[in-house]
Amino acid sequence: DGGVLYAAGAEKVSGGRWKGVLWKDGQPTYFTEEVGTEVTGLYVKEGKYIIEGNMTADSGDIVTCIWTEEGVQVISEGMALCQGTGLAVAGSDIYVAGNAYDMDYGTYEEIYRSPVWKNGTELYTLTDGTNDAWARSVCVADGTVYVAGYEQQPDGVVAKLWENGTLKYTLGSG
Length: 174
Description:
- This protein is mainly β.
- About 0% of the residues lie in helices and about 65% in strands.
- Strands 8, 9, 10, 11 and 12 form a five-stranded antiparallel β-sheet that branches. The chain has a four-stranded antiparallel β-sheet with strand order 4-5-6-7, with no helix packed on it.
C-alpha cells in the first residue's frame, strides 16, 4: 500500500496469552488486549486495514472477529468454537469464511461446519452438517463468492470448491 509494508499476527505476552499486533513498516500497533488471538487475514487499502481472525472471549469461547481502526466486531456470536480462516474484500463488503464446531446433542456427535459471513452476517453454511467440513480460503470476483476447503467423506477427506454456497467442484487426485 503506497510502498508501506504491513503484516499482522499475534505476539506472545505474559501467561502464554497472545496479543494481536499490526506492524506498519516494522512498527507494532496492538489491536487486542492480552487475550488468545490468532490472525488469519489482512487487507489494507489507502492506509486503512481490515484484520480477520480469532479471539478468546471473556466467556472462554473462541470467536471469529474482524478488526478495523474503529474496533472489533465479533461475527460468530452464539458459537462456542469458531475460527475465521479466510478474508476477502470486494468494494465495501467484507467476506469471511470459517469453521465452527457444533455438537449434535441428540447423538452427542461433534460436527464441524463452514459458515461464510458478509459484513458480519452469516450468509450460509457450505454443508448440511452430515459430514465435517472446513473452509480454508475465500475469494470474491465479479460478485461471485468462491470458497475452497475440504469435507470428510466415508473414504477420506476430499477437497472442494463452492460458488455462492453451492458445491461447484469436488477435486480428486487426477
